[in-house]
Structures are given as structure tokens and as C-alpha cells.
Amino acid sequence: MSKPNEAKIIGASLPRIDGPEKLSGAAKYAADNHLPRMSYAYGVFSTIASGRIQDIDVSQARQMSGVLDIFHHGHFPTLYRTPSSMEQENKVDETRLPFEDDKVYYPGQFVALVVAETFEQARAAAYRVKVDYASEKPIADLEQALATGEQPKPHGESGHERGDPASAFNQASNQIDVIYTTPMETHNPMEMHASTAMWDDGSLVLYESTQGVIFARNTMAKIFGLPVERVVVHAPFIGSGFGSKLWIWPHAVAAAAASRQIGRPVQLVVPRQQMFTTTGHRPATQQHIQIGTDAEGRLVALSHETVNATSMVNTVAELAGRCTPTLYSCSNVKVSHATVRANIGTPTAMRAPGAAPGLFALESAIDEAAVAIGMDPLAFRKLNYTEHDEGQDLPFSSIHLMEAYEKGAEKFGWSRRNPEVGSMRDGNELIGWGMAACNWEALKQDSEAHVSLRSNGTVYVSCATQDIGTGTYTVVAQTASAVTGVPVDRIQVKLGDSTYPRGPLAGGSWATATVMPAIAKAAKAAIEELKTYATGDDGPFQEASMDDLQFSDGQLSDGNGKSITFGELLKEMKLANADGRATTSGEMNSDYSYNSFGAHFVEVRWDPGISRLRVSRVVSAIDVGQIVNQKTAANQVEGAIVMGIGMALYEQTEYDPRSGLPVNNNYAEYLVPTHADQPPEVDVLLLDHPDYNFSEFGARGIGEIGITGLAGAVANAVYHATGKRIRSLPITLDKLMA
Ligand code: MOS
């Protein structure tokens, strides 16, 4: 008889094992490290959007108490640029090094760095640094960049074309031809970007809030011209990052360089305001979608062309069309991406990069296509459903999108929807019901891990990946527990340190699928080593062969009634531990396409009398393979739904079109959903179908998918309530009142 799912460690609903440390304040984040003789740095940030530094006058600032040094382009060590390659696990977001020259490419760019005895002294002096600029007229945003007449730079490798989309569209019986826009959005993790750097005999030790200690180590080694062995990066706890902490930004380089120059540890926290300019953002997009359908509502043509704003120094394409070749059956499809340059900081990945803005547009347009022919949007999606990835011409490794549509619809009560716009009411409120599909590619990377069975009866696991608040510590403990039978409270998990065996970036929703096989393999290797000891000359099972021995629930037994726990065995043999090390490959069987899916059903309430719009109910059915931990998985989707509501209704980073300077670069004016904005009801249905074509544990990863499609579902619900088709995020009240 098999145990009920709840009793199994993989799939259990477990609280985070790092919870007590975080709640009690014991968890140390990058800026919690106050090292002996530490000094503090504060940036001077450009107050123009474009131009040149003519002069920097530090004379007054230099006299202020506690000031140790002031760095700028005229006074900074020579460093090295990096090849910035994902393959080499070595990447910066901004290729240009801090203080490299006198150029200003965006507002909020580091133009100087003051180092002082205290944070307050550094900040006070930073305000006294006088910078004389030669200002040029900036290109403030996507709109202005498009208006310059500069030809958008195509991002060739991400395009897709099949069939003949142009003529199929022209001949289609129904046509939707629309443009959607999404704004620049800023990552706002609770923990600000921070670097605490020190040098020890020519080696760099960096406490960095990063989603990738290995990447950070490799990158800093390149920049400082060191062998990787002479850089150590620590990030045991991260207050999230959402993609803004995947790769090295200028502040980390500046802090490490300053520390080496002055011969003391330096701590640099990026102020919240500069997190709007110097540590990445989700770029603004303009997306042109054309949909052609036949008389029955079948897709015959689908075109999705995106242009996004990038910075003056780096090309970052937002792959908004990434799901478009995949999600529906259609013979004639075109997807393209291109960039235009503006005087803004360099964009980067933000939770579900590409897919989040892309599925707002695609799933809105699908709704428009369904509405145009008087078809229920869910029925329209089912009609155009496919279990074959027509983009890659491969079957999906596992797909339960139809089940997501059906279970989500049933839970939500979709069949009770009156399709007529503005027909559903509750008192003064108009009720809108909308839905959308979600999609995110499933990815894996190479990884290594170390597992040690210790003589004190505990298990030690280490891997140089990070837990950015997603539950990785817990999932790693569950994996080690599943293999060894040792309960999670006797498993010590060590992550977030570049000296541990190489682990993946915490990004792309790939950490779980990447580390589980490595942990499991290392645990099995540790058990093998234990068996070698046990059957060796001094071992208690010397008459047995390795193959005779069974290991379960932390015990070694010979099948003839003799058994001993690994702790006792090691103690008896005077051994500290039995070790296992493993390397696993992220390579996947090329016979399949690997994707996660889901469906969001959203209710909004619009009160036209007081112009109030709220998301009142969300049901999301999510197909991400095996659920490893019900609690942390549901929590990831709930968080993504809230972030999706932020995308739909609130978030936008705005620049003054005249000066190119940021307008709402603070928590008061950059709106994110708060407690009062949460929908009273959020239901997450985790479909829990293991995908063994993808990985041995069947888990595909869950961090990003929940935000994809959500803004589309909200926009579709808003249309259903109000009859207003808002094609430009966020859906602010002025747009509804216009
Ligand atoms: Mo994610 S945007 O890969 O942190």
C-alpha cells in the first residue's frame, strides 16, 4: 500500500526550514556584515540623463569629517571589462565599468563614490560633491526613442516564422490588428542591493545580495584580473531580487575597488531611489499583434512583433513573443523582437522576462479575437489548443493545460458568466470576469552538490546556489531526506557561498529542477561511501558485499536482521563522516519541448460612481510538473499573482519627457500592491503531474509562471465589466474614465 501523498517527503507541505533564522533576525544579509575597520560608501548619482562630466569638485566634500576618499572617473583604478557570457557563467548587466570615462548615459548613473567612516558621513559628503555637467538632450523613454527615426535593431536569433502569416492574415475572415504597450517596471525586492567588500592578502571577499554567487565570483575575478580562487562571494540570505540580482551591477565593482584602494572593508548599499536607475528594470515594450481567424474561430494567422527600449550601452531584448509560437495551434506565425536606445539604465530580466509583458498582449488579443466573433474566450482557447509545440515541432514533455482550463473554470464558476459587457452587477459595482493562459519554458542547468552523512547522525548538504526567498533551502532538505530517510530537521543545508560545489543561478525557474538531481546523486554517493566503510576491514558488515546492504530511514542493514544507523556506524568506526559529491548535467532529451502551463481566472469590480477598480477574486490552475512542496509552491504562485496585479493596475517607472529624469523613483509614488490591494480570494490549484521526461523528480519549477498571463486576465475582466479595452498597462483610473 502506498503512503498518502502528504506523508511523502517530496510533495509534502513543509514550512521553510530557514523561517526561524529569518524571523528571529539571525539570518545575515549582505549589509548585516559589519566587519572590523569597516568604512561606508555612498554614491553621487548623475542628475542629468545624457551628456558629459565637465568637472568634479570634491574639495568641500573631502574636508568633511570622516571622509576617507572620493572616487570618480579621474581617480579610480584601472579595471577590466568582462566577456559577459552566460556560457562562461560570467556576466555583467552593464558592460561599461563604473567611472570608466566622463560620459553620462542615464540619470542616476554613478558619477562618484564617497567613502567615509560612517554611512551618515559618506552620505553627507556625497551631497557636497559638485559635478559640472555638459548636458545633452536625452531620449527619455521608448516613445521618444521610437520617434527619433532610428531603425529598431532586430534581435534576430529570437525570431520565429512559419507558414505565410501575412497572406493568411489578409485572407482571414476575422482580423484583429492591435498595438499593446507595457511600461518600464522596476524590481522592488525588500532587501536593497548591497555589497560588503574586503580584501584579504590580495583576495576579494564579497558579501553580495546576489541571485548567483558563482556568476558573481567569476565576474569579479575577470574585472579585477584575479584567478577565481581569489574571489569568494557570500549570499546565504537574499531578500529577493526578481531578476535584478542575477548579474553584477556597477555598485559591487565600485565597492570592491574602493575597498582595495583604501585598504579597509567597504560597505555600499544602493539607495532605493537608485535601484530605479542603476540596477535594471523590465523594459517598456510596444507590441504589434495580428490575429486572423476563420469563420469557426480557428487561428489561421498570428503575428507578434515587439520593440523595447534598451540603454545606450547594452542591447537587451525583451522577448515578449517567446510564448507565441508555442501556446496555440496555428500554421502561419511570425514573431520578432527589436530594440531602440534611450538614456535609461540597462534593462534586465524581471520575473518571467518576455512572457509577462508578452502574455499581457497575446492573451488580451486572443480575448479580442474571441469577442469579435462572439465566442466565449475559454471555448476559443480550447478550440485552438495543441499538445504539440508547433514552434519547435516537438511534442511537449508533459502538458495539462486543458485540465488547467477545465479545473480553473469549474472552481471559478466560469459557466455562470454572462458574456455581455457590463451585464454582471453587485450593487453599485460592475463585475467583470476574464481569463488568460500562462506559459513558461522549463529549463535546467548543470550543477554540483556535496552531501555528507555525519557521525552525529545529521546530514550536511552544500551547493553554491541561493535561496532568494523561494524555498530552495527547504526543497534541498526534502531531496536529501527523500534519498537518506533522515527527517529534514536533522539535515543542515548550506547555500549561497561560492566555495561550495558549483550551483545554478537562482533564476529562470530552474533552481529546483537543477539542484534536486545533484543533491540526490551526491546523497547516493555518500551512502555508497558509507557502505564501503561498512564492508571494509574495520566495518561491522565485513562479511557482506556492498550489494547486500540496504540503506533506508538512515540505517544500513544486511537483510538478515542486522542494522545500524549511519551515525552509530561512523562513530563506532571513529569516522567523522561519509561523503558524496556529484555533478549533474542540465542537458535535456531533444525529443521534447519543455514547458509549464496554467490558466488564470480573474474577477474585477468596477465602481463607476467612485471610480474604483479592484481585483476581487483569482483562481489559477498551474501545471508545473511534480509539486515538491505544496506550501512553498502555492506561495510562489500567490506571490506571482500579486505581482501580476501590480503589473496590471499599478506599476510603471516614469521619466520626465523633457529632462529625462525619473519621476516616481520611490516607494511613495511607484505603486505596488499592498495588503489592502490583495484580492479577498486567491485560489491556487496545483495540478501536480510529475514530468519524468524532464527530470528524475518530475518537477519543472514554479517561480515565474504565475505572473505570466495575469495582467491579460485582469485586462480581459476589465473589458467585460466596462467595455473598455485597455491596451496600455497599467490600467489606471484615468484610462477607465477617459
Ligand atoms: Mo528570474 S527574472 O530569472 O530572477
Automatic annotation (TrEMBL):
Ranges that cross the membrane: none
Domain (Aldehyde oxidase/xanthine dehydrogenase a/b hammerhead): residue spans on this chain: 24-137
Alphabetized GO MF terms: iron ion binding; oxidoreductase activity
InterPro entries referenced in this protein's UniProt entry, alphabetically: Ald_Oxase/Xan_DH_a/b, Ald_Oxase/Xan_DH_a/b_sf, Ald_Oxase/xanthine_DH-like, AldOxase/xan_DH_MoCoBD1, AldOxase/xan_DH_MoCoBD2, AldOxase/xan_DH_Mopterin-bd_sf
SUPFAM superfamilies: CO dehydrogenase molybdoprotein N-domain-like, Molybdenum cofactor-binding domain
Keywords: Molybdenum, Oxidoreductase
Protein name: Aldehyde oxidase/xanthine dehydrogenase a/b hammerhead domain-containing protein
Keyword Oxidoreductase: yes
Organism, scientific name: marine sediment metagenome
Composition bias type Basic and acidic residues, residue spans: 152-164
